[in-house]
UniProtKB/TrEMBL annotation:
Binding site for ATP: 34-36, 93-94
GO MF terms held by the record: ATP binding; kinase activity; magnesium ion binding; ribose phosphate diphosphokinase activity
Positions of the catalytic residues: 190
Natural source organism: Sulfuriroseicoccus oceanibius
Reaction(s) the record says it catalyses: D-ribose 5-phosphate + ATP = 5-phospho-alpha-D-ribose 1-diphosphate + AMP + H(+)
Keywords for this protein: ATP-binding, Cytoplasm, Kinase, Magnesium, Metal-binding, Nucleotide biosynthesis, Nucleotide-binding, Transferase
Domain of life: Bacteria
Textual note on the cofactor: Binds 2 Mg(2+) ions per subunit.
Chain ranges of the Ribose-phosphate pyrophosphokinase N-terminal domain: 1-117
Encoding gene, per UniProt annotation: prs
Family the entry assigns: Belongs to the ribose-phosphate pyrophosphokinase family. Class I subfamily.
Pathway: Metabolic intermediate biosynthesis; 5-phospho-alpha-D-ribose 1-diphosphate biosynthesis; 5-phospho-alpha-D-ribose 1-diphosphate from D-ribose 5-phosphate (route I): step 1/1
Protein name: Ribose-phosphate pyrophosphokinase
SUPFAM superfamilies: PRTase-like
Amino acid sequence: MKIFSGSAHPELAESIASELGLGVTNVDVKAFPDGETFVRIHENIRGQNVFIVQPTCPPTNHNLMELFIMVDAARRASAAHITAVIPFFGYARQDRKDQPRVPITAKLVANLLVAAGVNRVLTMDLHAAQIQGFFDIPVDHLYAAPVLIRHLKERGLNDNLVVVSPDVGGVKMARAYSDALGAELAIVAKHRVSATEVEAINVIGDVAGKDVLLVDDMTETAGTLTAAAKILKASGAGKIFAGVSHAVLNDLAQTRLNESEIEELICTDSTPMAKGEGVTTLSVAPLLASAIERVNNGESVTSLFQI
């Protein structure tokens, strides 16, 4: 078994390799002055199972292209089996044709990964779970929930708690958290004004006098979370926490979080942007390492979903 790392998140790849008692394979990944990517593998990988760790977070197109080139290099070096380990799957929000004459880019990315030579995909908390069906190869879809819920229980944050979905689309995920934490469930109805602006309209459920955990699969500008937090505070909520699987935080998100009613954002290290003031980052390296080990040994990964 060999662990490769692209340039997107080498710290996570090293943590995963360390969990497995391995080192990251010696691979040169560099850019030419014109922006082209060059990859060279310095070790013999003939007949080996290769796992390439590369979240496709910003710069998304660059990281995707780098992943394609690394897969091609591994395939031409006679790797036995190539698994793309994509903790954060970029373009997952473009999973359907919801306007005239627009692409389904998540499907295009799936096609390109298979065409490049990927035999299996290992990913986590896809924005839309049905993206698994875009692939004609096996997809192992992991969940960060066990990692976040274990942390919340250890800190005792599940007392007097209401789990809140910041939009109707996230109710299923919020329900899973509320069941695991033994907490009640509430929903914030929202209206998206633009790609970065969100208006929270109403709260469905009782949050008065209770602490709140906002749950979502990802945040980028923190617009949905901070708008929801504002209306929850106005509805009498106590402390407000947010738990997300993927924090692709930019400057706007950090500013909004600092000025919001959210006391703490709890997220995973699926992307290198998951850090900042008031942000607690939990590592998913042990989870991904366990999944890689099980895939390599031909074992089930289902038990990793248990909390």
